[in-house]
């Protein structure tokens, strides 16, 4: 969440009590190899209320006394203030951290484009998306040309078929994003072929099924936006970094209260797990003053709780030598788990046990994408508690509500989030959005401290 105060015209920096708040969520964009290469930013634009209008009008009248040449009673344009609030929000550290080094695709309104505040957005980090409903005239084209000269890149968004506006803007766009859910299947091959021949990078949005991904991939699309990679049918395309039965055996052991000797015996049966644990124990965030050289030292340095979380997330790691921050499924599962943990701590009477249960709920909500088959049978194998299973399978209880909330956040469904927050008081939509960004940042920091994830490589 971010806020921007209403400024008095003619007095830069002057503020009133009224504020505009913008909230943000992110959706992953994958390349042809199935790795993260960007995020689409879903914006919840601030609402211009009657109270804000009154405050703005009062500021305009007050400005007459401060500047005799100021236009009498002219209040600032609400659309421009909203645009400024969105730009200001995109510049905040929370958004930057949640991008984890990847570029952001963000819808820009006409007001945002004509506001010089947009020049504060780093051109190399933001792709500016133009909606099909934007008014295209000479002034807009001239502004796009001007911004293009400053190295800003443009995306034609939500394309379903060629239109007059599409034709006018196409020469200035580097990327075309085609809505796979609404575009005619008969038109897609020709549309993709023509655009590829014109040198455009193609993004297929709304890719939530493996079949759609395969179709788009076959048509030569370069990027894919959607959650097809988190579905069970993709499990055959993934390889985990250690044998699945070894990870499950270790998780079952960790669900009890194992001794160091028991953990040592189990880990010795799995050289890959030992290798990862030694890397984990010697990471900068867990340094104990000297290099850890024995398995027993590694267990003691890391701790069973941390080994458990590391093992849970290792289930999702791609078997290829992929940087953890580029692995979409692991990032999604880790972000959900961290969000659940942060969110439940805002609720009354939530303690450490509830936070651990929330983390488990988030991290195992995608486990069928790795193991395939029935989600229920896999959860039974993991011996998860009934409340956790009920939350994952049926969205029951507080854990189920939180899981539904983070799923809505992944879709950028702000109305659904608002409805769920009404049942999760004192949680607000703004807090949910802020925690989503914080969770994404936590999941994406992959090489560094004991507070987040560690790099997992073969």
TrEMBL record:
Highest taxon listed in the record's lineage: Bacteria
InterPro entries, A to Z: dGMP_Pdiesterase_EAL/HD-GYP, EAL_dom, EAL_sf, HDOD, RNase_Y/CdgJ
Signal peptide: none
Domain HDOD positions: 240-430
Pfam families registered for this protein in UniProt: EAL, HDOD
PANTHER family: CYCLIC DI-GMP PHOSPHODIESTERASE CDGJ, PTHR33525
Protein name in UniProt: Diguanylate phosphodiesterase (EAL domain)
Organism per entry: Paraburkholderia xenovorans (strain LB400)
């Amino acid at each position: 969440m971010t806020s921007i105060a209403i400024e008095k015209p003619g007095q830069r920096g002057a503020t009133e009590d009224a504020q505009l708040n913008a909230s943000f969520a992110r959706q992953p964009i994958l390349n042809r190899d199935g790795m993260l290469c960007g995020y689409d930013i879903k914006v919840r634009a601030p609402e211009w209320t009657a109270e804000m209008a009154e405050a703005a009008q009062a500021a305009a009248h007050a400005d007459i006394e401060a500047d005799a040449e100021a236009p009498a009673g002219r209040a600032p344009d609400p659309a421009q203030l909203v645009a400024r609030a969105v730009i200001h929000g995109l510049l905040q550290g929370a958004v930057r951290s949640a991008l984890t080094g990847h570029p952001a695709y963000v819808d820009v309104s006409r007001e945002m484009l004509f506001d010089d505040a947009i020049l504060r957005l780093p051109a190399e980090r933001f792709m500016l998306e133009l909606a099909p409903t934007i008014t295209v005239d000479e002034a807009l084209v001239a502004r796009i040309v001007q911004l293009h000269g400053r190295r800003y890149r443009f995306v034609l968004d939500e394309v379903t078929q060629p239109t007059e506006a599409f034709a006018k803007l196409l020469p200035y766009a580097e990327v075309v994003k085609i809505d796979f859910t609404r575009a005619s299947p008969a038109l897609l091959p020709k549309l993709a072929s023509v655009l590829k021949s014109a040198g455009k990078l193609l993004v297929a949005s709304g890719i939530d099924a493996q079949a759609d991904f395969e179709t788009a991939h076959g048509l030569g699309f370069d990027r894919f936006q959607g959650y097809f990679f988190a579905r069970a049918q993709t499990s055959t395309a993934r390889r985990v970094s250690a044998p699945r039965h070894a990870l499950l055996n270790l998780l079952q052991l960790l669900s009890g209260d194992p001794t160091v000797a028991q953990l040592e015996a189990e880990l010795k049966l799995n050289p890959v797990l030992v290798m990862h644990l030694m890397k984990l124990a010697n990471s900068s965030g867990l340094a104990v003053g000297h290099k850890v050289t024995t398995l027993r030292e590694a267990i003691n340095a890391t701790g069973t709780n941390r080994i458990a979380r590391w093992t849970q997330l290792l289930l999702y790691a791609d078997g290829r030598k992929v940087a953890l921050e580029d692995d979409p499924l692991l990032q999604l599962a880790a972000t959900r788990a961290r969000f659940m943990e942060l969110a439940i701590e805002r609720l009354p009477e939530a303690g450490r046990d509830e936070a651990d249960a929330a983390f488990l709920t988030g991290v195992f909500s995608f486990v069928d994408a790795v193991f395939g088959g029935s989600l229920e049978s896999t959860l039974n194998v993991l011996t998860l508690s009934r409340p956790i299973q009920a939350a994952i399978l049926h969205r029951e209880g507080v854990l189920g509500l939180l899981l539904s909330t983070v799923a809505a956040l992944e879709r950028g469904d702000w109305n659904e989030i608002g409805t769920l927050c009404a049942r999760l008081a004192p949680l607000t939509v703004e807090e949910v959005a802020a925690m989503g960004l914080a969770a994404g940042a936590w999941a994406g920091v992959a090489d560094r401290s004991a507070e987040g994830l560690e790099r997992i490589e073969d």
